[in-house]
Amino acid sequence: MATTKTAKKTTRKADQYNDPKYNYQDYWTGREYEHAAEEMAINRLLKGKHFEQAIDVGGGYGRLSKFLTKYADKVTLAEPSQQQLDIGKIYLKDMPSVERKLLQAADLKMPASSVDLVLVVRVLHHLPDPSAEFNEISRVLKPGGNFILEFANDAHFLNRLRYGVRGKSVPIKPVDISSEANKNDKELPFVNHHPKAIIKLLHKAGFEVESVLSGSNLRSPKLKKVLGKKPLLAAESVLQPMLAPLYFGPSIWLKLRKK
Ligand SMILES: C[S@@+](CC[C@H](N)C(=O)[O-])C[C@H]1O[C@@H](n2cnc3c(N)ncnc32)[C@H](O)[C@@H]1O
What we know:
alpha/beta; Rossmann fold; seven-stranded mixed beta sheet; two-stranded antiparallel ribbon; 10 helices; 9 strands; 36% helix; globular; binds S-adenosylmethionine
């Protein structure tokens, strides 16, 4: 039984983040609005706080690890793709307080209660059942420590309309949105989550929700073209807290506190 559990934790599927033909850093070219909207959400959730040790779990090449140095003395970029860590070596070359480690979210190999901030952004769509990962994050966080979680929201406003016109509700279970070609057990899963299901799992893992934000509310290529980044961000700034109670946007941000 124990052997099976270890194997499950460390098995790595083939995926784009390790594909030499794919550079995740390039994905961010032309997505300055989305990146700035994410930094805005983090600033809002962490305003006035400072931490000793943060972990950016599934942090890729460290896009947000760099930003986290504003809030923490030390940052660990915990990432299971060696390719991402290699890109991060260059991206983070002027950031001595960021350490890069090859790690899976379900097995962070850190002592219990050893960190005071965890960030998980754009990772949950690869984890159809994130229970083991939430339990591991809860284990490494000190009581009272913060966990900032962003995930793709299956119950966003447009989707609720789409389901509603068919007389249905958005499913509570994770919804597989992988392309047909990628629907096999070799590729990383690709799912969207319902906020209610995620919050239920977080409560089980020992977290309480301190704040919610609705993110990337105006993510639309047309709007980006017509309005430009500055006005979009001004609107996003108002909408993030305003639309949070409706779980409106395609991305949901939670600020959690370990009990
Ligand atoms: C879309 S990228 C997001 C990277 C970074 N958080 C960001 O926002 O720029 C998804 C990342 O999740 C990582 N990932 C996938 N499965 C994971 C797991 N089980 N544990 C930790 N990270 C994982 C991938 O390797 C990839 O770097």
